[in-house]
Write a structure and sequence with these properties.
Layout (H helix, E strand, L loop, with lengths): L1 H25 L4 H25 L6 H29 L9 H4 L19 H17 L14 H16 L31 H13 L3 H28 L4 H10 L4 H5 L8 H9 L1 H10 L6 H21 L2 H19 L5 E3 L2 E3 L1 H25 L14 H9 L18 H16 L4 H19 L4 H5 L7 H43 L4 H36 L13 H13 L7 H13 L5 E4 L8 H5 L2 E2 L13 H9 L7 H9 L2 E6 L20 H4 L8 E7 L2 E6 L2
Parallel strand pairs: 3-4, 3-5
Antiparallel strand pairs: 1-2, 5-7, 6-7
Helix pairs in contact: 1-2, 1-3, 1-7, 1-8, 2-3, 2-8, 2-13, 5-8, 5-9, 6-7, 7-8, 8-9, 8-11, 8-12, 9-20, 12-13, 12-14, 14-15, 14-18, 16-18, 17-20, 18-20, 20-21, 25-26
């Protein structure tokens, strides 16, 4: 099982990086920058392809789904190389100019145009990936009882079943999606409704991986979450810091050690919900920011600008299909950056014969953005075009401020405050980094974005007023997602703060070294000169890296081990331990679908014919049987069995136990081709979001079946669990 997990992780890396790197290579972008940006492009190619085939109502084979993006990337690369080589041949016949001025200038070689961007040595992305793999491997993977474990929350019902339906239907779409595959349309319990959008990028990648590795959806899903946290997110943060602070190498290096040090993100989002699509989208999101910043530079070459626009459009498609909330989070972050860029611009803008000051332009841009934001809010939310869930406040203002200062932001929430403990070490790093930006008058826009999101976190968990929906963006505005955006903006500041502490330590060491050199210079003799030379060699080669490493190691270690008060713990507890305990609880053995029941489902899978329709009680955990074991249970959602339910579903749900005496029930079972009945352990706890919808008697046609009920034969039996075969 774990072998399949790591195979899935390797396949996901190949899916998300190979097409993107190949296509970005055609732009002339350097390999490190292509590496950190590739998922934006690769995902978009898969998503666009899936929507096109879905719109044409054509099932797309797995091989086609995988090969088309690779073929597009290869063709673009080939075309660019062909044009470059053709230009070179066209200029071979030209006679060289022999003037003295021309001889002083190197003749053009007409190679592929190079992409102009900041220097990014390859070892830096590799450092981010290495630290990411170690951190996630040590903190997250040990909390999983098995590679197929999953958080049995409300959202996972959609994630697992929709993915399995994609695999069977061979349709990978965020518009035409369902809990049931195309061939199962007749057994869908509800009347078909109008198509609607739901971000299914996570499902598409998991569906492709599941088929390529021949594994299960939960294993492939965990592998995607692992890759997102350990590789995609660190590389995205690397691209952001490298763009914003290109000359600050220590800050860029420090970012590798702090990008996964905040337990609000990505850690808590691996438990809460679980909202895996949003988690992956947040992991990818920072990489589009550097594209936007590079695209809006005043001196961007035309060749680069064309490619940047293409990449930006593909990136927006990727974020939208992964989760649209990241679009609005990006707007919140990039608005201060744009405001600062316009205010510092040296371009001359003349209006009505008068030059407009940059500050005036900046304020005009801000007002324009505010108007557009308001229009979007009216059209999408007030008019009901998009979802807008209301999340009630649960904190006092004082507590909310303390949580923001402690970098835990969420506190005692309705979703489990035990996930997060305060992290004062990171609070200090963020504060030092913010001071650095104002002292050096560089990247101050990051502080503005971070402060806005921090105040927003305080506001939405403290006050219940309509304004918080307007201020926090659209689609979903719960505290966990807003806090995740805030943490993403805190990471570059923390990297700056850690780098400042490292520089302070190096400066202190340098001062001590100078005093030592002055003391040594007062002496005479060859032995003392030789000792001085050895000291210089040690300082120049080893001292700086050792001191920097020691400071970083101390800060990181203190962040992970300092016990802090936790709202669900009697004793102070380190943030890392608080997360591990919460993760073990979330992914551990549950009262809904236990390990015993999962083993029973495995036996059912081996017993029944492939594709056999099985009636079930969804709240006993069998609603996940389709997503976990590809068992075609009839009812796959915990609620919705009301006026919109099809009559056939209601008949079986209420009267299947009467199949031997009720001709209508027998005919309905034959029409839907229901062959078996699955009963797991009884629903004993209604505290979970899934089981809370259960009302005794709703599925009395299932629960009243016993070993002696006419028309049913026991096939498998273990404790109170049964698999019956309909014999009529």
């Amino acid at each position: 099982m774990w072998l399949e997990f790591f195979q899935s992780a390797v396949v996901i890396v190949a899916l998300l990086y190979v097409p993107g790197v190949i296509l970005l290579h055609a732009s002339g972008m350097s390999k490190p920058w292509a590496f950190v940006t590739a998922p934006l492009v690769s995902c978009a190619l898969y998503f666009i392809e899936g929507e096109i085939f879905s719109a044409l109502n054509i099932p797309v084979p797995l091989a086609v789904m995988i090969l088309v993006p690779l073929l597009i990337a290869a063709l673009v690369n080939g075309y660019v190389y062909y044009v470059a080589s053709k230009n070179k041949e066209d200029h071979r016949g030209e006679k060289p100019i022999k003037s003295k001025a021309s001889r002083a200038v190197k003749q053009p070689t007409y190679r592929m145009p190079s992409f102009v961007c900041e220097e990014l040595p390859f070892w830096i992305p590799l450092l981010y990936v290495t630290i990411g793999l170690l951190t996630v491997g040590l903190l997250f993977l040990p909390t999983l009882p098995s590679a197929s474990s999953f958080v049995q929350g409300w959202d996972i019902v959609h994630h697992l079943d929709v993915t399995q339906a994609m695999i069977e239907s061979q349709k990978y779409s965020s518009i035409h999606y369902d809990f049931y595959s195309t061939i199962e349309a007749s057994i869908t319990p509800w009347e078909p409704g109008a198509s609607g959008f739901y971000p299914s990028g996570w499902n598409i990648i998991v569906a492709l991986t599941t088929q390529l590795v021949s594994t299960t959806v939960p294993i492939a899903g965990n592998a995607l979450n692992f890759v997102s946290a350990a590789i995609i997110f660190p590389l995205s943060i690397c691209s952001l810091i490298a763009k914003v602070l290109p000359k600050h190498r220590i800050a860029l290096t420090s970012g590798a050690f702090v990008c996964l040090a905040f337990f609000v993100f990505p850690w808590s989002l691996l438990i809460y919900g679980p909202i895996f699509p949003n988690t992956v989208a947040f992991c990818v999101m920072p990489s589009i920011w550097w594209i936007f910043m590079q695209m809006t530079r005043s001196k961007t070459p035309k060749h680069d600008l064309i490619w940047l626009v293409i990449i930006f459009i593909l990136g927006c498609i990727t974020l939208f299909v992964l989760h649209p909330s990241t679009i609005f989070s990006s707007i919140v972050v990039l608005l201060p950056w744009s405001f600062a860029r316009i205010g510092e611009s040296k371009r001359k803008v003349v209006l009505f014969g008068k030059r407009v000051k940059p500050v005036t332009l900046a304020y005009a841009f801000f007002i324009f953005a505010l108007v557009i934001w308001s229009v979007f809010y009216y059209v999408l939310i007030i008019r009901g075009v998009a979802l807008n869930f209301w999340w009630s406040a649960y904190s006092s203002l004082q507590d909310a401020i303390l949580h923001a200062l402690g970098m835990d932001f969420i506190g005692q929430s309705y979703a489990g405050g035990e996930v997060v403990s305060p992290q004062p070490i990171l609070s200090i790093c963020v504060l030092v980094g913010a001071v650095w930006t104002f002292k050096h008058k560089q990247a101050r826009w990051m502080v503005s974005a971070f402060l806005y999101l921090s105040i927003l976190c305080i506001f939405i968990i403290t006050f219940d007023v309509p304004l918080k929906g307007y201020l926090s963006g659209f689609w979903y505005t719960d505290p966990f997602r807003i806090a995740a955006s805030c943490i993403i903006m805190a990471i570059p500041l923390a990297a700056l703060g850690l780098a400042t502490l490292v520089e302070a330590a190096l400066e202190t060491f340098s001062t001590c070294r100078e005093k030592l050199s002055q003391y040594q210079s007062q002496g005479q003799g060859q032995a003392k000169n030789q000792a001085k030379t050895q000291t210089c060699v040690f300082y120049n080669i080893w001292a700086k890296p050792l001191i920097a490493g020691a400071v970083i190691a101390c800060v990181v270690a203190l962040n992970y081990v300092i016990p802090m008060p936790n709202l669900k713990s009697e004793e102070p507890i380190p943030a890392a331990l608080a997360f591990k305990q919460a993760s073990e609880k979330a992914y551990g053995d549950h009262y809904i679908l236990t390990s015993e029941e999962l083993e029973f489902l495995r036996r059912v899978e081996l017993t029944v014919p492939s594709g056999a329709v099985i009636a079930n009680l969804p709240q006993d955990g069998s609603l996940w049987a389709y997503g976990t074991n590809n068992i075609h249970v009839l009812w796959r959602f915990p609620n919705g069995y009301d006026a919109s339910e099809r009559p056939a579903s209601a008949i079986l749900r209420k009267r299947l136990n009467r199949i031997a005496s009720d001709p209508e029930v027998l005919q309905t079972a034959h029409d839907l081709n229901v062959q078996y009945v699955l009963i797991l352990n009884n629903v004993v706890d209604y505290s979970n979001a899934v089981t809370s919808t259960y009302k005794p008697g709703t599925f009395r046609g299932i629960t009243q079946i016993t070993n002696t009920t006419p028309g049913f034969e026991v096939v498998l039996e273990e404790g109170s669990m049964r698999l019956y075969k309909i014999t009529l």
